[in-house]
Amino acid sequence: MKQTNNRSSEDYLEAILLLSRELEFVHRIDIARRMGVSQPAVQKAIKILIDGGYITCDGMHIYLTQSGKEYAENVYNRHCVIRSFLRLHGVNEADANSDACELEHVVSDATFSMMEDYVKKHE
User: Fold this and answer.
1) 7-71 placed in CATH 3.40.1410.10
2) 123 vs 110: CA distance, rounded Å
3) Cβ atoms 84, 93 nearer than 8 A
4) Which CATH architecture has domain 74-122?
5) Is pTM, for the whole model, over 0.85?
6) How many CB atoms are located within 10 Å of the residue 106 CB?
7) Model confidence over 4-60: pLDDT tens digits?
8) Which residues make Cβ contacts (< 8 Å) with residue 83, sequence separation at least 6?
9) Residue 4 in contact with residue 52, Cβ under 8 Å?
10) Range list for CATH 1.10.60 in the chain
11) Contact (Cβ atoms closer than 8 angstroms) between residue 54 and residue 48
12) Is the dihedral of CA 98, 100, 101, 102 positive or negative?
């Protein structure tokens, strides 16, 4: 799977994934609200994600492609594992969630694997 190596793109993919689990159709305004960004910012991100093959649009609705869904699920899984790892070490929910948003993009595969193993053993 081709990686975006772009934190912003990963955040948009993650938001689209989560919105698609909550809503029948994902719209640009939903993404803007979820992420706290402007509609023009969403439009720019949408173009980048379409060009990368991660999403498609029919004019109004936004859909993850298969590769986009796999990539978004990978990013979200990293977020969830890191958040759980931090919670297991006594970090409060708000800080664990916030820190996981940062760490999911930068933690090495080796460190993530250690965190994942720890969470599996202790949850």
Assistant:
1) no
2) 20
3) no
4) Orthogonal Bundle (1.10)
5) yes
6) 8
7) 558 999 999 999 999 999 999 999 999 999 999 999 999 999 999 999 999 999 989
8) 96, 97, 99, 100
9) yes
10) 74-122
11) no
12) positive
Nearest to 10 by CA among 54, 58, 62: 54
- The pLDDT, as a whole number, for residue 3 is 53
pLDDT reported for residue 59: 86
The pLDDT tens digits for 77-100 are 999 999 999 999 999 999 999 999
- Answer whether 55's CB lies under 8 Å from 19's CB: no
Determine contact, residues 62/27, Cβ cutoff 8 Å. yes
Query: Do 71 and 13 touch, CB atoms closer than 8 A?
Result: yes
Give start-end residues of each CATH 1.10.10.10 domain in the chain: 7-71
The token pair at 66 is 């298969």
Cα–Cα distance, 13 to 19 (Å, whole number): 10
The count of residues in the chain is: 123
